[in-house]
Specification:
Strand order of the largest sheet of chain B: 4-3-2-5-6
Number of domains of chain A: 1
Order of helices and strands of chain A: EHHHEHEHEHEEEHH
Largest interface: A-B, 40 and 49 residues
CATH topology of the largest domain in chain B: Aconitase, domain 3
Number of domains of chain B: 2
CATH architecture of the largest domain in chain B: 2-Layer Sandwich
Low-confidence stretches of chain A: none
Strand order of the largest sheet of chain A: 4-3-2-1-5-6-7
Low-confidence stretches of chain B: none
Structural class of chain A: alpha/beta
Shape of chain B: globular
Shape of chain A: globular
CATH class of the largest domain in chain B: Alpha Beta
CATH topology of chain A: Aconitase, domain 4
CATH superfamily of the largest domain in chain B: Aconitase, domain 3
Number of helices of chain A: 8
Radius of gyration of chain B: 20 Å
Helix content of chain B: 25-40%
CATH architecture of chain A: Alpha-Beta Barrel
Oligomer: heterodimer
Strand content of chain B: 15-25%
Strand content of chain A: 15-25%
Structural class of chain B: alpha/beta
Largest sheet of chain B: 5 strands, parallel
CATH class of chain A: Alpha Beta
Mean pLDDT of chain A: 93
Mean pLDDT of chain B: 97
Chain lengths: 161, 418
């Protein structure tokens, strides 16, 4: 499985309140929530994001609340993968459970810049920065988690046995 | 094994687990609220499940946007209410008997030592105060938990906090946990347990422990957990008739790091915007004028918190330009505060007293900030836009500091107004 797209880059400790502010959580309609994704730190994100784009951030991405609306609104906005130096653990779980591919890679998190064109190979964990002509080795998932991601989420993987 | 590892091993049917191991564990309780449960219900229906694993081991607490703040919030609660009714969920709590989930569940005796609990709310780590393994998850996990009564965990390693000494007057458990987060950072315990033990535990009440375990997530921890002692056992008396098992960390348990926290050195502490790790004591706080004070939340809305705030506010007035909002965390706490005369103290001081709700803590309702406004809050997060406008600011503090700041009209410590 691969993802390839243009990068939206953010910094350290991007929290779930800025990914999707609680003031919008009176709905569970993820397409509706996607319209407000990231707006408190990047007002134009929803306007600029295109299907297949990649999000890259630094340490502790997704810290804060357990709201699944955070990874779900990122996924619904069209983002195909999030790369970060590290993820907050509930966000990490939620992303896997809903089938949003995420990958930890310190080098990619440091070197990739906003607007770069990046390709990720989930089987090998290799991240290719087409703009800069560089490759970075991300951490690949254990089989248990690959099964969940490939099934497009936890519930599908439970159903498929 | 650490305390957490022993509880997880017991729930996975294994004699031993190691940090990093992936396990499937049985659950004693699955929790959701009015924001996260609707997503879980949608997934439950989409997946075609037709029953829950246990009517008594699922709890739904309508606390975030209640009493319903708008039509959409009302729809979400209705969806939860109908689901709870359809499946006969025993522990469904709605307006009138509701409280903020993490104050309510311990009060009702729904969690006991040794339990494994997941909740679709990040502050589910609160119940570690009772010696349970308890952690926040998302709605899909909640859905799988409701259907199967089990979920997957990666066994965490741990950081040990050896608690010694006793807190000085006007220093609080909130100051301790802000101090710790300031020391290790908002990702200092990422993916790991924070285990609290030591001779100083006896000087921390159950409410102190609930406050500290509550904010383990603000250091990135999977869970915070306290050793079980007489304080724990005393708290449980009369709340539950469930038998429980006390797990203790092995003498040779491995810890990634160990810290000693001397409670006698803890000073009133404030976490500056926009991260809980920006902890400062008053030798490093300039004059900052404030617009609002919030005393409440799953961190500091319990009766001892209200007593602390009342001790400061008794016979005083909230500064003219400050709105002070007091939110007892449960109906029982509200009633107790009323009987003890605390509500009268608050209202005479010029505070608004609200029915239990998470309300302003997450910028839901009941005290939203305008652009440029500053609030001192006993809540747990001070992220960008957390309590309202993206250009507003939240300063996290104890009930003592919050009440003192309400009187002073600026960020102030108790000694400045007493």
């Amino acid at each position: 499985m691969k993802a390839c797209g243009k990068v939206h880059k953010y910094g350290d400790n991007v929290d779930t309140d800025v990914i999707i502010p609680a003031r919008y959580l009176n709905t569970a309609d993820m397409q509706e929530l996607a319209k407000h994704c990231m707006e408190d730190i990047d007002i134009d994100f929803a306007k600029n994001v295109k299907k297949g784009d990649i999000m890259v951030a630094k340490a502790n991405f997704g810290c804060g609340s357990s709201r699944e609306h955070a990874p779900a609104s990122i996924k619904a906005s069209g983002i195909d993968c999030v790369i970060a130096k590290s993820f907050a653990r509930i966000f990490y779980r939620n992303a896997i459970n809903i089938g949003l591919p995420i990958i930890e890679c310190e080098e990619a998190s440091e070197k990739i810049e906003n607007g770069d064109e990046v390709e990720i190979d989930f089987d090998t964990g290799v991240i290719t920065n087409k703009t800069k002509g560089e490759t970075y080795q991300g951490q690949s998932f254990p089989d248990f988690l690959i099964n969940i991601i490939n099934s497009n989420g936890l519930l599908n993987s439970l159903k498929n046995g | 094994m650490t305390m957490t590892q022993k509880i997880l091993a017991a729930h996975a049917g294994l004699s031993e687990v190691k940090a990093g191991q992936l396990i499937m564990a049985d659950l004693d309780l699955v929790l959701g609220n009015d924001v996260t449960t609707p997503v879980a219900i949608n997934e439950f229906n989409k997946a075609g499940f037709n029953d829950v694993f246990s009517k008594d081991k699922i709890t739904m607490v309508m606390d975030h946007f209640t009493p319903n703040k708008d039509i959409k919030a009302a729809q979400q609660c209705k969806q939860c209410r109908e689901f709870a009714c359809q499946y006969g969920i025993t522990h469904y709590y709605d307006v009138g008997d509701v409280g903020i989930e993490h104050a309510l569940l311990p009060e009702k005796g729904l969690v006991v030592p040794g339990d494994a609990v997941i909740g679709a709310d990040s502050h589910t780590c609160t119940y570690g105060a009772l010696g349970a393994f308890s952690t926040g998850v998302g709605s899909t996990d909640m859905c799988a938990g409701m259907a199967a009564g089990k979920t997957w965990f990666k066994v965490p390693s741990a950081i040990k906090f050896n608690i010694v000494g006793k807190l000085p007057e006007y220093s609080a458990a909130k100051d301790v946990i802000l101090h710790i987060i300031g020391m290790i950072g908002v990702d200092g315990a990422l993916y790991r347990s924070m285990e609290f033990s030591g001779e100083g535990l006896k000087n921390l009440t159950m409410e102190d422990r609930l406050c500290m375990a509550n904010m383990a997530i603000e250091a990135g921890a999977k869970n915070g957990i306290f050793a079980v002692d007489e304080v724990t056992k005393e708290y449980l008396k009369g709340r539950t008739d469930r038998e429980y098992k006390v797990f203790e960390a092995d003498k040779d348990a491995e810890y990634d790091e160990e810290y000693t926290i001397d409670l006698s050195t803890i000073k009133p502490t404030v976490a500056f915007p926009h991260l809980p790790e920006n902890a400062r004591t008053f030798d490093d706080i300039p004059e900052i004028k404030i617009d609002q004070v919030v005393i409440g939340s799953c961190t500091n809305g319990r009766i001892e918190d209200l007593r602390a705030a009342a001790k400061i506010l008794d016979g005083k007035k909230v500064a003219d330009h400050v709105r002070c909002i007091v939110i007892p965390a449960t109906q029982h706490i509200y009633l107790t505060a009323m009987k003890e005369g605390l509500l009268e103290i608050f209202m005479n001081a010029g505070c608004a007293v609200s029915t239990p709700t998470c309300g302003p803590c997450l910028g839901g309702h009941m005290g939203i900030l305008a652009a440029g406004e500053k609030a001192v809050a006993t809540t747990n997060r001070n992220f960008v836009g957390r309590m309202g406008h993206v250009e507003s600011e939240v300063y996290l503090a104890s009930p003592y500091v919050a009440a003192a700041s309400a009187v002073a009209g600026r960020i102030a410590q108790p000694s400045e107004v007493m």
